[in-house]
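Sat 14:20. Reprocessing the chain from the morning session after the first attempt stalled halfway. Input below, unchanged.
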Amino acid sequence: MTNIHPSLPLIDLHRHLDGSVRLQTILDLGRQHNLPLPAWELDTLRPHVQVQEAQPGLMAFIARFKWMVGVLVDYAAVERVAYENLLDAHAEGIDYIELRFSPAFMASAHALDAAELCAAVAAGVQRGVADTGVKANLIGIISRHNGVEQGMAELQALLANKQHFVALDLAGDEGNFPGSLFVEHFRLAREAGMHITVHAGEAAGAESIWQAVRELGATRIGHGVRATDDPALIEYLVEHRIGVEANLTSNVQTSTVPNYAAHPLKAQLDAGVLATINSDDPGISAITLPYEYDVAAPQAGLTLEHIHQAQRNALGLAFLPDDEKAELLHIKEAQK
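Finished this time. Tokens:
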């Protein structure tokens, strides 16, 4: 028995494409390109890639990406990973997914061209959409920890492929690279017609979320765990209908919260925040979106009513035109 409402589309608004690389694909590409992988069998590779226990912080968790981006030797590998993201979303029963990635981060291990990498991702996703029927959009990320200048270069790579992206995000080392460094980047993105979602309130406090909505123009916040530290901020999020992309398991694994029960998602939903349930990096966390609904959410104290509200919120917050949201809902209701 699942907690997923059968009449509502299952939506993942916060999934990192490069945090969703299959272990088998890492092995295949490692062998194909003679890469120095730490292990050569699924069971022995798994502990190097997947998190088995809580990490001491966000950056320790991010270190697990090493073997996922490390196999992106060429654009064919990038396209394969993007395509397999859609196959895996389909296998999880997802109806609509927003996949995000930092082109500079994905390109870094093998000095790929960021703009060409964006085109390869788009090609893989489009092929996956055609083969699975899962609806998908792409969100581009600026990696904070590369600094302001590299962030602008990354933005230019994304804008060169603007037709493939619905939104811009800021991710990485939130504690040491505040959003205030990237105000100009996000002004340019908004002028280019992109929606804005920002990782905030994960490794920094409520002030990071305030900055994201006031200065960067965020209409959604990735994680937003620390929002509940500031009642005025919660009121602001509710009043301005700013969404929160919650990621239960990854927040436990990054030690952002000590356990599921301590997660503020329930409190946010009770307060009327448009909070949602997402998977973040399922390849690292070793979870699926249904796992987050059926296992993580109840452990975080969510009732069935909370869970269904989060599922409704995801449809409302999706970076989709209203007619496409209505179509998703219509298709789901027709399937009953």
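The beta strands are 11-16, 96-101, 135-143, 165-171, 195-200, 220-223, 243-246, 274-277.
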